[in-house]
Amino acid sequence: MSHKKELNFEINILPILDILSVLICFLLLTAVFVQIGTLDTKQAVGDNSTAGAKNPPSLWVTMAADGGVQLSLRNVPKAKVLESRIGKSTKGVNWEALEGKLKALRDQYPDLKTSVVRPEANTSYGDVIRVMDHLKQSAFEGVGLSPLG
Amino acid sequence: MKDALALGGGGKKQSLLRRDLALALPLTSLIDAFSIIVIYLLIGTQNGGMETQVPSRISLPMANHSQGVEKVAPILRIEKGNYFLDDKRIAARDLTDKLAEIKKNSEEKDLELMIQADTEMKYAELDPLIKAGSLAGIEKLKFAVVPGK
């Protein structure tokens, strides 16, 4: 009878805690923390009248579906070359050439802060976002998207 | 050695000593487990920004110059030509009316709209939304992206 009273009913929680800590470490290592950001654009709204208003100097980026990009300057009084074309590369848009051209334009025309992106219907959304990202990188403050004609 | 002798003695004293030992031992593991949980919570809360749900089937484009999500904005998701406004499917022809209704009911003057779309999507699928947003008077569009390095 006395032997029964000495039985140890305590649960050994040490291995349980060890397993738990290993599990937590495993979850921490395998978890994917996806942080989301946003790329902001300012669009022209339907009731905005442009009649009589002075448009700021702007850069229009026309994107072809095959990766070709055309840059056009508008309302830039001192601009000598109004249009410039960047040919496509083997992977699509020639990003290095575009970045260099945007940087050169910003250096040449410091007042050039507005840009409008005009993609074609078959242009990839990822490429459109990447062009807008490059424009933001080149310190263009107002970046907008043009609807299809 | 002394401890072993004391434990081997038997009787009431021995059982008390065993119980004391059993209570004292798990503390180290407990502290370990709690410190791991605290680190886990710290990692989870340091981002600060708003939590935004993005379906795993959507692969967001990457952008290096993105901004954090700080405000709650209506989310418009585009999936294979279908439009979902706050997870509610709406037809393309109803986009303008729905957005105008949201703008009308919103307390904010400059209503922002967050757009979630797959990086492989064609621009033609985004175009109805750009037009609808313009007609509804929504100036600020925020494109959801994955912040780059």
Task: Explain what you see.
The complex is a heterodimer of chains A (149) and B (149). Chain A has 149 residues and is α/β, with parallel strands linked by helices. Chain A has a domain at 58-145: 2-Layer Sandwich (Nucleotidyltransferase, domain 5), CATH 3.30.420. Chain A has helices at 2-5, 13-30, 95-108, 125-137; strands at residues 37-42, 58-63, 69-74, 83-86, 114-119, 142-145. Chain A has a five-stranded mixed sheet, with helices on one face. In chain A, strand 2 (58-63) and strand 3 (69-74) form a beta hairpin. Chain B is α/β, with parallel strands linked by helices and 149 residues long. Chain B folds into two domains: 2-45; 62-147, no CATH class. Helices cover 43% and strands 20% of the residues of chain B. Chain B is built from five helices and seven strands, in the order αααβββββαβαβ. In chain B, strands 1-7-6-3-4-5 form a six-stranded mixed sheet, with helices on one face. In chain B, helix 4 crosses helix 5. The N and C termini of chain B lie far apart (59 Å). Chains A and B meet through helix 2, strand 1 and helix 4 of A and helix 2, helix 3, strand 1, strand 2 and helix 5 of B. Strand 1 of chain A pairs antiparallel with strand 7 (140-147) of chain B, so a sheet runs across the interface.
| Number of beta strands of chain B | 7
Morphology of chain A = elongated
| Uncertain residue ranges of chain B | 1-9
Q: Total number of helical segments of chain B?
A: 5
Percent helix among the residues of chain A? 25-40%
**Helix run count of chain A:** 4
SSE order of chain A: HHEEEEHEHE
CATH topology of one domain in chain A: Nucleotidyltransferase, domain 5
Q: Judging from the principal axes of the Cα atoms, what is the shape of chain B?
A: elongated
Percent helix range of chain B = 40-55%
User: How big a fraction of the residues of chain B is strand?
Assistant: 15-25%
Low-pLDDT residue spans of chain A:
none
- Sheet with most strands of chain B: 6 strands, mixed
Beta-strand content of chain A: 15-25%
Q: Taking all residues together, what is the mean pLDDT of chain B?
A: 79
How many domains of chain B? The number is 2
Q: Please identify the top-level CATH class of one domain in chain A.
A: Alpha Beta
| Helix/strand/pairing category of chain B | alpha/beta
